[in-house]
């Protein structure tokens, strides 16, 4: 049969085959390789364990009957090892009773492929679990990236706060010095001739502080005339000194009405601190500034002393952080699988449209609900145990039944990871789940079919048996035993 499938996450994936029958290995390896999957093989459980730890494949196909440790014990050891426990395992076996399949699920298997296998069915099962594994890796990677971005943003914000605090302290110190100098000059001029020398010394200090301040400083009249400025203002605006002297401060704003806003706040509050506006250079290029204005006396005239801090780079960083957040949210909103976020109490803080569709609700109806309100009572211990693991920082993956809004039950595979706040404290869970209700129904139908077949097989009056290609008996009914006297 020529089996084709759409391109999917299985392309470039790695599958480890553990089987002691060369023929089975060759057929399955050729089938998977023809669909772009890299195939590795092992002949027994011990070799398979070693290769799995060394290579970390995306999926393991494991024969139940192996020399040495059998497939169930091999799977049990894979799930007990922290390095390999997240790798999905599909058992390959000749059809047996449901108890064997249940045993396979109990030790950590996610599916079965029956020997001799049907290529189309085998590919569908392999593709399904490779997709689930790929999605789990994406969620883990996104969670890690989000934590890194949060840490980076925290670091940037701390640096910006430190820089801003330093500049504000420096401006406050300079303004305090200027007020002190001005007060001393006015007092000493009135007292005696020695005050004139003190005034000159104070003016020298003022000019040094004014000229060398790392932020832009302007002295302006209330009508906007520019009376004085330091070198930082010239560098910010690209104007020549004589050009600044001929301009009104309104011309340095992108929006001239901003000057009125500054004056109104100054008249109301007596000063202006940290007001963010858009300034304009000589060539028309705009830049963001944080503005502080205090009253000042200059050459005997009441004026305004204005400090300008260029915050363009900080605003660009904030814009980029917002863009990254919107990008991540776009990915989550359009995923086909259900995505949820909960707080530490298990209350939904976010659900994507796929989650709402799966459960029969709207997104707004789900946000604010607790996990337990859609979890049957017999399933709640599973959720509680998973919550305890995630509080310890562990990710997990398990099968769970949930209530649909119409009252019916659906079965899902849930993969959850913890997420943390900016201080690194546990803040809740990020989870991805996939509806496997139809698969579970198919498994139940298969068990019923096998039960009916076993009953018919046992009660037939004719001798019936089933054997391997080599002639070894696999199943014999009672009539056959009686017939031959064994």
Give a quick precis of the structure.
The chain is of the alpha+beta class and 486 residues long. It is 48% helix and 23% strand. Strand 1, helix 1 and strand 2 form a beta-alpha-beta unit.
Which structural traits does this protein have?
486 residues; Beta-Lactamase; 5-stranded antiparallel β-sheet; single chain; 23% strand; 48% helix; Rossmann fold; 15 helices; elongated
Description:
With 486 residues, the protein is of the alpha+beta class. The chain folds into four domains: 14-117, Response regulator (Rossmann fold, 3-Layer(aba) Sandwich); 164-316, PAS domain (Beta-Lactamase); 335-435, 2-Layer Sandwich (Beta-Lactamase); 441-484, no CATH class. It has helices at residues 22-33, 45-55, 71-80, 98-106, 119-191, 194-212, 231-237, 241-245, 257-269, 312-333, 353-359, 363-366, 380-391, 437-459, 478-484, and strands spanning 14-18, 38-42, 59-63, 89-94, 111-115, 216-220, 226-229, 272-280, 286-298, 301-310, 338-342, 348-351, 396-403, 409-420, 426-435, 465-467, 473-476. The radius of gyration is 37 Å and the shape is elongated. Helix content is 48%, strand content 23%. The strands form four sheets. The chain has a five-stranded parallel sheet with strand order 2-1-3-4-5, sandwiched between helices. It contains 15 helices and 17 strands. The model has no long low-confidence stretch (mean pLDDT 83).
